[in-house]
Amino acid sequence: MNTQLYGSDWVVIGILILAAAALGYALLTLNQIIAPSKPSAAKAAPYESGVPEVVATKPRFTPRFYVVAMLFVVFDIEAIFIFPWAVVFDGLGLYGFLAMLAFMFLLFDGFIYAWKKGALEWA
Amino acid sequence: MEWASVAFYLIATVCVLSAAGVVIARSAVHSAIFLILCFLNIAATFVMLGAEFLAVVQVIVYTGAILVLVLFVLMLVDEDQLPDFHTGQPIQRISGLILGLILLLEIGAAITARSIQGATGGATPENVAAVGGNTQALGRVLYDDNLLAFIVVSLVLTVAVIGAIVLALPDRRVGINQRRGTGTINLGHPVGTDGIPLALPAVRGESPIAAATPGDLRPVAGERQIIMVRDPDAYTEVGQHDAAPDNRPLIKR
């Protein structure tokens, strides 16, 4: 096993993640400690001036969003396939280049289909 | 190397606990957040196994894309309309318990017997290190020896794109018609449990609402109502809530 791998690089990434989480917690905790807290019914209302809400405030979204999310998953996976190709690109030569072109071309068909079907539009 | 096993057990513990949290959490959004934590810890496990490409894929695809999909589902459905996850029928609970035990036994058998061990082939640690890491090794295997499978993957992904659009994309004209039909104007009247606005004069006595009978309340999109108002300013006071009997949420339909 490659000890040098997580002896250096991954520890840095781990420290970064921990620092990000710690910063978030620290700011929230500081806010709770320092900020004055005087809750009242008027402050808890969604709008301080305006009509009280009468319907559920959580709107439902159109399925269009979901299509975009699914397209995102598919093209995300396509991007994943490009990474190992990119790191060995020099060794693969023209053959690997054409292989990736074929891959992209086939997926581009799907992209054009989605485009022409209006899956990427909101109007 | 002692700290490595400490790190592993920490990661594994958080992973199992967050996986349990996915099931136990009452709110579906909390489940999704636990799922993020679980996926990230699995990625950390991959890193500890030396599979750094798999770890990055885990973060990008699962934590990034799949979780987006899950959250979009939560946005699309009304959370109040979801079935309560923790009140299953007895037969569901029992069959779930049995299936879970069987799965646990299978995993335990696989671990203790260690019968599942694929051939390593040429992918020995030395060979992988020689080409620069397992991302490079994967690239060489994928784009040289298994090119046909790689191209087939692109076909599968294309089918996924087309399937997503055919199955989930709403017909555009239908969508426009539906949007026209669901326009509502809410003027902020608290409504009683009987569905009659609390301030309706015929029922509740004096109010700033224009003399309206229930016949004047024009239904829009089935249930919601438009109420004519003479003095809109009367509705913008804080404290309008107080007209409701017991401070319950105003309308739930």
TrEMBL record, chain A:
One of its GO terms (cellular component) is plasma membrane. Its main location: membrane. It is found in: Cell membrane; Membrane. It is an enzyme of class 7 (translocase). Keywords: Cell membrane, Membrane, NAD, Oxidoreductase, Quinone, Translocase, Transmembrane, Transmembrane helix, Transport, Ubiquinone. It is a multi-pass membrane protein. NDH-1 shuttles electrons from NADH, via FMN and iron-sulfur (Fe-S) centers, to quinones in the respiratory chain. The immediate electron acceptor for the enzyme in this species is believed to be ubiquinone. Couples the redox reaction to proton translocation (for every two electrons transferred, four hydrogen ions are translocated across the cytoplasmic membrane), and thus conserves the redox energy in a proton gradient. This is NADH-quinone oxidoreductase subunit A. It comes from uncultured Thermomicrobiales bacterium. The lineage of its organism: Bacteria, Pseudomonadati, Thermomicrobiota, Thermomicrobia, Thermomicrobiales.
Automatic annotation (TrEMBL), chain B:
InterPro entries: NADH_UbQ/plastoQ_OxRdtase_su6 (IPR001457), Nuo/plastoQ_OxRdtase_6_NuoJ (IPR042106). Its EC number is 7.1.1.-. It comes from uncultured Thermomicrobiales bacterium. Belongs to the complex I subunit 6 family. It catalyses: a quinone + NADH + 5 H(+)(in) = a quinol + NAD(+) + 4 H(+)(out). Its main location: membrane. This is NADH-quinone oxidoreductase subunit J. NDH-1 shuttles electrons from NADH, via FMN and iron-sulfur (Fe-S) centers, to quinones in the respiratory chain. Couples the redox reaction to proton translocation (for every two electrons transferred, four hydrogen ions are translocated across the cytoplasmic membrane), and thus conserves the redox energy in a proton gradient. GO terms for cellular component: plasma membrane. The chain crosses the membrane at residues 6-25, 32-49, 55-77, 97-116, 147-170. It is found in: Cell membrane. It is a multi-pass membrane protein. GO terms for molecular function: NADH dehydrogenase (ubiquinone) activity; oxidoreductase activity; quinone binding. Keywords: Cell membrane, Membrane, NAD, Oxidoreductase, Quinone, Transmembrane, Transmembrane helix, Ubiquinone.
